[in-house]
Amino acid sequence: MTKDFEGKVAMVTGGTSGIGRESAIAFAKAGAKVVVAGRRDAEGAETAELIRSAGGNSLFVKTDVAKANEVEALVKKTVETFGRLDVAFNNAGIEGVWVPIISQTEKDFDRTMEVNVKGVWLCLRYEIRQMLKQGGGGAIVNMSSIAGLMGSAGSAAYGASKHAVIGLTKAAALETAKNRIRVNAVCPAVVETPMGERLFGAPEMKKYALSLHPLGRFGAPAEIASAVLWMCSDGAAFMTGHSLVLDGGFLAGPNPPS
Known about the structure:
By secondary structure, the protein is an alpha/beta fold. It contains 8 helices and 7 strands. The longest helix is centred in the middle third of the chain and has 28 residues.
């Protein structure tokens, strides 16, 4: 792997497992110093250790992205430890409870929006402030989903939150373009992660979900990580305000279950 991020500092939220962990390790292998954020101490420390075992330099900071003081402290700790912030992957998110709107509780709706939307907004707020303080320049990727580009019965709160992430991404991109800060979003379909297993792990549900992916399989965390790294690299220097779809053909057209 080329060292595209040599001398740069990357921050990954939701880095305790799945896409976040894979991305954090990939950034380190590409030369970056990596700050891993998440709510679970043991898993976060494990990600940081995996990075160090691979020869990288890493730090875990326990963070709930829905809390402003914790996000502010995360960015501050990043700068105190490594001197700056060049790249951020705002990956932290939850699926919430997938039920019809009439059955969804206000508490669950609020928590889904708090983590998936407010959490991204808070990360953008403090990441952009730091990048501007450094004189501008930087790359940010937000985790959305194909659920941010389509409707799906039974997942209204999750879908609404991922639509909102795309809106935040476009606004942030426009606000920071003149300062050479690029902001994009990534929109995967089902990926083989703990969240994917919770939602689609049951045999009949898995069979149905697979039938919606023309490639006949779910995505791998490493495939999403690879795209995120490219979006943050100089190779994507003319890309901002965009939502990159990685869906195995899901959105290409009608693909009714066989």
